[in-house]
Structures are given as structure tokens and as C-alpha cells.
Amino acid sequence: MGLNTYLNFGWKVIPFDPTNKRPLFSVNQAVFLSKEQLKQNFDKYKQEVNLGLITGNASGVFVVDIEDKESLDKFKKRLISLGVNISFIPSVKTPRGTHYYFKQSLLYNSSDFSDFEVYDNGSCVLLPPSKSKEGFVYTWVKPFIDF
């Protein structure tokens, strides 16, 4: 999956510096840009850049970051209490754990996961096929067709 796919989902995606996980474009400005304008931001960089998702209302997505077994066990219990099966949640393997992607909805929202590290309004996460400075490639564990 690449930039065009993410933009077609209606996600706000901006270029990130591959050496330090920082946006190369203002997050505050990007939330107001069209799909075509977002694409143009990538075209002006000659070097390889990572893909960064602006989470929260801008893209309609929040992300829960799980980095250890204890947190994963607690997360699974929380999902069960919400009636959600973890195997159906889109997820991305990161250098230190897994990002779980949730569409903002009436069924659940980021406050349901407040005791975990949550990326919501004003935050960003790297999307596959971004690479860490150590060379780790972010990959979809549980991909999705339509989000």
C-alpha cells in the first residue's frame, strides 16, 4: 500500500523525514489540504521520505500503540469488553511493537483506550512502507481493503 491508497481512504498523509520521525510539512496546515495538494507535498522532495498519517478527526482514525506483552494482554481484555476481536483490527508492525488502527465511530473511540498510548487529534504515526533510521520497515500485519 502506498500514498495513493491512503489518500483514497480520505486519510491526511504528509512526508516525514526518514532520519528522525518528524514531519517535513506543517501538520496544522495539512489538515486543510485536498488530496491533490497533499500529493504535491511529496513531489517536491527529491530524497526518500516516510509516510506520516495525521490521526484523529483529520483522517477519522485513531491508533493504539502496544509495545509489550503486559500491555497486549490488557489491550486484548479491553477489546473483549468492547465486543471486538483483535484478529479483525488493522495493525502495523513497528520497531518496538504494534499499532492498532481504529476508525472513529459511535461504537468506540480513543477514550475507551485512555490507559494506553493513543495517537488521536494532533498526533501522527508512520505508515507502511516507511523505514526507521535503523532500517526497520513498517509493515501491515492485518491489512484492510476499505477503512
What structural keywords apply?
147 residues, alpha+beta, 4-stranded antiparallel beta sheet, 4 helices
Question: What would your notes on this structure say?
Answer:
This protein is an alpha+beta fold. It has one domain. It has a five-stranded antiparallel β-sheet with strand order 7-4-6-5-9. Strands 2-1-3-8 form a four-stranded antiparallel β-sheet. A hairpin with a 4-residue loop joins strand 1 and strand 2. The longest helix has 13 residues. The chain is globular, with a radius of gyration of 15 Å.
What Rg do the Cα atoms give? 15 Å
Provide mean pLDDT, rounded.
90
End-to-end gap: 13 Å
H and E order? HEEHHEEHEEEEE
How many helices does DSSP assign? 4
Uncertain runs:
none
Count of domain modules: 1
Strand content: 25-35%
